[in-house]
């Protein structure tokens, strides 16, 4: 839902033509890992709107997405640690080695 809000908010200030030009991406293979390189926009394209309310709305959408992703990552890291502790306890308790 947060990504949907970002996409919907972007239409207020970003030019779709510029995004389309950026998405002429290349696939590279570095150490057997595929990377997608999205091109930077040529020049310094203008925003469709510099209305502070619209710009702030887009900025807040990105802020909420980033902080939510950080929260989920921290929670996943904590749960991974608990799962590893549980796994070690089970191995020790039931002599699994």
What features would you describe in this structure?
The protein has 97 residues and is mainly α. The protein has one domain. It has 3 helices and 2 strands. The protein is elongated and about 65 Å long.
Strand order of the largest sheet: 1-2
Count of strand segments: 2
* Terminus-to-terminus distance: 44 Å
Shape: elongated
Number of domains: 1
Low-confidence stretches: none
Query: How is the biggest beta sheet arranged?
Result: 2 strands, antiparallel
Instruction: Tell me the Rg in angstroms.
Output: 22 Å
Give a short synopsis of this structure.
With 97 residues, this protein is mainly α. It has helices spanning 2-10, 16-22, 52-93; strands at 26-30, 33-37. Strands 1-2 form a two-stranded antiparallel ribbon.
What distinguishing features does this structure have?
97 residues; mainly alpha; two-stranded antiparallel sheet; 2 strands; 60% helix; 10% strand; elongated
Furnish the topology, listing elements before pairings.
Elements: H1 2-10, H2 16-22, E1 26-30, E2 33-37, H3 52-93
Antiparallel strand pairs: 1-2
Helix pairs in contact: 1-3
